[in-house]
Specification:
CATH architecture: Roll
Largest sheet: 4 strands, antiparallel
Number of domains: 1
Order of helices and strands: HHEEEHHE
Radius of gyration: 14 Å
Strand content: 25-35%
Structural class: alpha+beta
Strand order of the largest sheet: 1-4-3-2
CATH topology: Sulfate adenylyltransferase
Number of strands: 4
CATH class: Alpha Beta
Helix content: 25-40%
Number of helices: 4
Length: about 120
């Protein structure tokens, strides 16, 4: 499936791309190249949309659904963490009382810097 075909199968966005990465710590990780994806409860961007962080532009390359149980350490590294457990603890600290359910689906937004 091409990115364009993939785009047509996605449900409507639930938020805007400017809300994709908002935590100061995460913004720093993106700017340093340590974070290349973010997972959200809703869909915040379309493929090809541009996110601007501190004047630097990042293009959304892929958007897809994934369950928390599918996460690997490689996925955690995309998020700027070494392991799934480290990522899980960070997420749970941001969302007190939220359960970590392996079947829970999230939207993955992968992005890359735009060289100008």
């Amino acid at each position: 499936m091409t990115k364009q075909e993939e785009q047509h199968t996605l449900p409507p966005k639930t938020c805007s791309v400017d809300r994709l990465v908002t935590l100061k710590e995460d913004v720093k990780k993106v700017l340093k190249g340590e974070k290349t994806a973010t997972r959200r409860n809703g869909r915040y961007a379309d493929v090809g949309e541009i996110m601007v962080l501190e004047g630097k532009k990042f293009k959304v390359d892929r958007v897809y659904s994934q369950s928390l149980g599918e996460l690997t350490d490689d996925h955690a590294k995309q998020e700027g963490y070494e392991t799934v457990e480290e990522y899980k603890q960070a997420i749970l600290s941001y969302h007190p009382g939220m359960p970590w359910l392996p079947h829970m689906k999230v939207w993955v937004h992968e992005f890359s810097p735009i060289q100008e």
